[in-house]
């Protein structure tokens, strides 16, 4: 077992779980993952890693206004994640109740490995949190962006999906939701608008083409326009011609052996709630992690990740509500997970 961190207790020892559906030994060589920029799906045939940062207990330090409460139910989330991602062929490492410096050291050690044969890496953070992208280590808050930067700088993870699942509050607000009448029907097509439609085809114009059509019509109707529309139209046409020429030059000068990729490409961040709001958990685990694991387990063979996240969103949004809380003001509250991503391909486990 690769030991990334020499801990003093079982809670700081990583677990290396070899997937049972893998036909190879941990040390068997795997071909380096080749990148095809035109492929519609990420290549998931290489090694896949799940890293779980599970924070159940917290210390009473100067970095917290009050000592954060234990996160009861979080081990149910950990167990479910390990079970489902084991099924997907992920090698799993679990780190429990680490302090901030240990988290950074562990993740830096993993990110610094040669990931030429890695297809995907998923970091799951189970902890308390606060607004501004803060998540809690055992001894202090830190920024989620610090974790993302560690893996974003790794050269052998470029063009490979880096997933961040964050089960944590993002503030103290609570959402009572909106009540809708399900017996009322609404035809959404009434709000649809088509720029131009004939009996055979529907044409959608670019913003510049649409703008020029409208302005040419206005110029024909206006005898004395308050500004020179012709000059503006000529300017827009000149811009279009210049951009077309630049695009043509760029395509000619592109070296087929190299591709410049944005620094923040191929990343997905799934948060259990929207900014400023609470997320919920009970003795059975957290709403988002449990719903996510159930959705992936039942649909991973046919659905891609983004479609499964939408299904998970629907489960949490429609089926979950707080009940029987000790504080009355926390009853009948809702939760809405939030995802942002820069994926350049579909991801199918």
Automatic annotation (TrEMBL):
Origin: domain of life: Eukaryota
GO biological process: apoptotic process; positive regulation of neuron apoptotic process; proteolysis
GO molecular function per UniProt: cysteine-type endopeptidase activity
Keyword Lipid metabolism: no
Transmembrane segments: none
Domain Caspase family p10: residue ranges: 257-349
Entry similarity comment: Belongs to the peptidase C14A family.
Protein name (database record): Caspase-3
Lineage: Eukaryota, Metazoa, Ecdysozoa, Arthropoda, Hexapoda
């Amino acid at each position: 077992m690769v030991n990334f961190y020499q801990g003093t207790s079982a809670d700081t020892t990583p677990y290396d779980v070899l997937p049972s559906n893998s036909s190879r030994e941990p040390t068997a060589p795997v071909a380096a993952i080749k990148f095809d920029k035109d492929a519609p799906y990420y290549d998931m045939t290489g090694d896949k890693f799940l890293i779980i940062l599970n924070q159940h207990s917290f210390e009473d330090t100067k970095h917290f206004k009050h000592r954060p409460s234990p996160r009861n139910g979080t081990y149910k989330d950990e167990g479910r994640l390990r079970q489902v991602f084991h099924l997907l062929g992920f090698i799993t490492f679990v780190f429990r109740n680490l302090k901030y410096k240990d988290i950074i050291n562990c993740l830096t050690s993993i990110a610094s490995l040669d990931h030429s044969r890695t297809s995907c890496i998923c970091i799951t953070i189970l902890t308390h949190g606060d607004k501004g992208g803060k998540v809690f280590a055992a001894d202090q808050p830190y920024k989620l962006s610090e974790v993302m930067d560690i893996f974003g700088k790794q050269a052998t993870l470029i063009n490979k999906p880096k997933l961040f699942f964050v089960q944590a509050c993002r503030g103290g607000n609570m959402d009572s939701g909106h009540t809708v009448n399900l017996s009322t029907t609404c035809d959404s097509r009434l709000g649809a608008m088509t720029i131009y439609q004939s009996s055979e085809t529907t044409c959608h114009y670019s913003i510049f083409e649409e703008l020029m059509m409208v302005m040419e019509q206005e110029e024909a109707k206006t005898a004395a326009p308050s500004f020179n529309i012709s000059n503006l139209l000529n300017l827009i046409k000149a811009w279009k011609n210049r951009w077309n020429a630049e695009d043509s030059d760029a395509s000619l000068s592109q070296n087929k052996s190299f591709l410049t990729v944005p620094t923040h490409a191929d990343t997905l961040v799934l948060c259990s709630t929207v900014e400023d709001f609470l997320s919920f958990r009970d003795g059975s685990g957290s709403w988002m992690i449990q719903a996510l694991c159930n959705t992936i387990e039942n649909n991973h063979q046919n659905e891609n990740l983004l479609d499964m996240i939408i299904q998970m969103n629907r489960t949490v949004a429609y089926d979950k509500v707080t009940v029987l809380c000790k504080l009355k003001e926390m009853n009948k509250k809702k939760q809405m997970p939030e995802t942002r991503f820069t994926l350049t391909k579909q991801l199918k486990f």
